[in-house]
Specification:
Elements: E1 3-5, H1 15-19, E2 25-28, E3 31-34, H2 50-54, E4 61-63
Antiparallel strand pairs: 1-4, 2-3
Bound molecules: iron/sulfur cluster (SF4) (2 copies).
Length: 66
């Protein structure tokens, strides 16, 4: 499982990138994305996804459905 950023909601504030322990978040062409392969949902590092915790926009970062 991994997280995904809803590009329609993201303001590109960058807060999520700095807290990710897996360095799974990066910006390309002004758009923040989460690498689904690298994202661990913060398991082993934190009790909850840190990107989700810090993102100021509701429903911007969500769980990627299979
Ligand atoms: S859930 Fe954790 S590992 Fe995955 S992108 Fe967010 S901060 Fe990074
Ligand atoms: S914290 Fe939320 S609004 Fe800010 S860059 Fe990350 S996904 Fe976008």
């Amino acid at each position: 499982m991994a997280m995904i950023i809803n590009g329609d909601e993201c303001t590109a504030c960058g807060d999520c990138e700095t807290v990710c322990p897996s360095h799974a978040i990066s910006i390309r062409s002004g758009v923040f994305r989460i690498d689904a392969v690298s994202c661990t949902e913060c398991e082993g590092d934190f009790d909850e996804p840190q990107c989700l915790s810090v993102c100021p926009i509701d429903y911007c970062i969500q769980f990627l459905e299979d």
